[in-house]
Each structure stands twice: as structure tokens, then as C-alpha cells.
Amino acid sequence: MNAPLERKAYRYFTPVTAIFVTVLVISNIIAVKLVSFWGLTLPAAVILFPISYIFGDILTEVYGYANARKVIWTGFFCNLLAVAAIWAGGLLPYSSFWTIGGYTSPASAQQAYTAILGFTPRLLVASFIAYLCGEFLNSFVLAKLKLITAGKFLWVRTISSTIVGEGVDAAIFITIAFAGILPTGALLTTILSQWLFKVSYEVLATPLTYLVVNFLKKKENEDYFDRDTNFSPVSFRS
Predict the structure, then answer these.
(1) Which residues are 36's β-sheet partners?
(2) What's the burial of 141, exposed, middle or buried (CB within 10 Å: 0-12/13-18/19+)?
(3) Closest Cα to residue 167, out of 195, 186, 199, 198?
(4) CB atoms near residue 209 (< 10 Å)
(5) pLDDT of 30-81, one tens digit each?
(6) For the whole model, what pTM was predicted?
(7) Roughly what angle, to the nearest 10 degrees, separates helices 13-30 and 65-91?
(8) Nearest Cα to 6, choosing from 76, 67, 85, 56?
(9) Which residues does 206 contact at the CB level (< 8 Å), separation at least 6?
């Protein structure tokens, strides 16, 4: 059933890719806000970012690791472009007539823009490295488990891959972004909190994942098994 990736056209692959990339870019923008859930302090992106892992599962499960790899890199470069555009926009001289919200002067509006949309190099490095490591591990684990389970027990694959991917993502991001700023105990607590929240998100979303996966497999006539796949993150061949 594994037709050559270069020759087979998929009807829904582009929309799924678009959702994945959009979720990623928006998540990085809204992550600046800290919110409180059940006593846990988390970035606002937790309401959206786990969806990228769900769609990462869907991409690998239906279309295979090689196609998921292309989407992961597409998301990376789209996010890089968004960051560059926001940074460049902040450097442009502001108009003398520019005011937003309750900010009555252009200078204060510029400060608001920088505070909300500005990125520090350390956080950017942490975000990009965590994203690549987490997403590729998530896709790799799911693809390998699909072979081991012979395509059965989708819930085992999606949850297991999320445990690994989100765990690595949280550990890398929090460590790079906040080591030396937060004490070790606080670092570990923050990592664990984000990890548990995101994994719980995946578990609760499992019925929706089943619906989307089954719909796509039927409509695309595809259920890819990565038997001969090159799993290198930097290879663009199947």
C-alpha cells in the first residue's frame, strides 16, 4: 500500500500541513503570556502547542515519517520567517501618529510591541532546539511502534510518542531558557508540570485523533508503514 511518496498526490496533506504550521507559529507568539491552571504556572501556548504533536502523530500515522519530516522542517522555517519578520518590524521607525490600545504615545506603543512580540536570543535557541528534537522523536517513536504493533493500538503509539517527544521538548526548552535563572528544584518542577499537562492533553484528545486518522486513511487510501524509511532528520528521501 506504500506508493512512492513522490508520485502519490494526497488530497488532505496540504490542509493538515497548514494547520500544523499555523499552530506552531501562533503558539510561539502567545507563549509570552503566563497562565495558571490548577495551581500550575504555564505559558499560554499550552492550550495550542500540544495540537502540533497531535498533528505530528496524524502525519506520521497516515502519511509516514518521511512526509512528517518535511512538514516538521516546513514548520521550523515558517516559524523562523515569522520571528525574522516580527524582529524586522520592531526595528522599523514608528510613525508619529501610531498609538494602540491604552498607549497614547508612539514610544509607549513601541515598548508594548517589543514587550509582547519581542524575542530574546536565549529563548529562541531554546524554542527551536526543543521543537526539532521533540517533534522528530515523537514521529520516530510512533513510526517504530507502528511496525512493532503491526498497526494496532493507535492509542499506545500516540501516547507513548507524546511521552517521549513532549518530555524531551520540555526538558530542553526549560533547561536552556531558565538554567541559572531558576533554582534546580524549580527547573525540575516546571519541566514536570509542562510534561504532565501536555501528555494529559494528548490522552484527552485521543478520541479526536482516532476520528481524524480514520477519516484521512479512508479518504487518502493510505496507511503508511515505515519499513524501509531513512529516519535521519536531515534526509528528504523516504
Answers:
(1) 41
(2) buried
(3) 195
(4) 20
(5) 887 877 777 777 778 878 888 888 999 999 999 999 999 999 999 999 999 9
(6) 0.88
(7) 40
(8) 67
(9) 155, 158, 159
